[in-house]
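Incident log, support desk, overnight shift.

02:14 A customer reports that sequence design results differ from what the structure should imply. Their input is reproduced verbatim below. On-call engineer (initials T.W.) acknowledged and began investigating.
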């Protein structure tokens, strides 16, 4: 695989990833801003601290106070996302390594890219495993923290 082919594949991939990153960041910003506006309008309606305290003791008030956190980060979603990425990259890298023996002129490029992509896949997978065990030991995964603290 010559360098022109690698650039032709990697450059659009890089640009697509940057575009996805920008648009997902803008989306999260707009959601956070909308939530903040709604919450501030609801809090303005409360006249005094006593009314706020009485409202906070109702079921709706508890939900409002829980929603004051702008972004909820679920350890499950992040762990599963890292594991999925790792699995896909491992399979893609191994496929490229297997293609190396079937393509004569571009075999070295497949070996290099396949090795790098497989290493990235193992890195994401190890990251997901480490995140799972750390989240579990910190008590973030529906359980008490481990006793080894």
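02:41 Re-run completed on a clean worker. Output:
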């Amino acid at each position: 695989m010559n360098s022109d082919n690698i650039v032709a594949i990697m450059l659009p991939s890089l640009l697509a990833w940057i575009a996805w990153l920008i648009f997902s960041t803008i989306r999260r910003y707009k959601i956070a801003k909308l939530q903040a506006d709604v919450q501030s309008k609801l809090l303005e309606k409360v006249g005094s601290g006593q009314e706020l305290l009485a409202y906070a003791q109702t079921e709706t008030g508890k939900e409002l106070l829980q929603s004051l956190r702008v972004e909820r980060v679920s350890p499950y979603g992040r762990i599963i996302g890292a594991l999925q990425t790792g699995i896909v990259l491992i399979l893609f890298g191994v496929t490229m390594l297997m293609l190396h023996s079937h393509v004569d002129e571009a075999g070295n490029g497949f070996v290099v890219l396949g090795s790098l992509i497989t290493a990235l896949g193992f890195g994401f997978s190890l990251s997901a495993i480490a995140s799972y065990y750390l989240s579990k030991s910190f008590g973030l995964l529906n359980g008490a923290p481990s006793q080894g603290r």
